[in-house]
Amino acid sequence: MTAHPSKTELSKTEVLIEALPYFQRYAGRTFVVKYGGHAMGDPRAARDFAEDIVLLKAVGINPVVVHGGGPQIGDMLARLGVESTFVDGLRVTDEATAKIAEMVLSGAINKELVGWLSSAGGKALGLSGKDGGLVTARKVERTARDPESNIESVVDLGFVGEPARVDTGVIDTAVAAGMIPVIAPIAGGEDGATYNINADTMAGAIAAALGAARLFLLTDVAGVLDGNGELLTELDPTKIARLREDGVIKGGMVPKLETCVAAVESGCEAAVVLDGRVPHAMLLEFFTARGAGTLVSA
Ligand SMILES: Nc1ncnc2c1ncn2[C@@H]1O[C@H](COP(=O)(O)OP(=O)(O)O)[C@@H](O)[C@H]1O
Ligand SMILES: CC(=O)N[C@@H](CCC(=O)OP(=O)(O)O)C(=O)O
Question: Using 50, 70 and 90 to split pLDDT, how confident is the model at 159?
Answer without folding.
Answer: very high
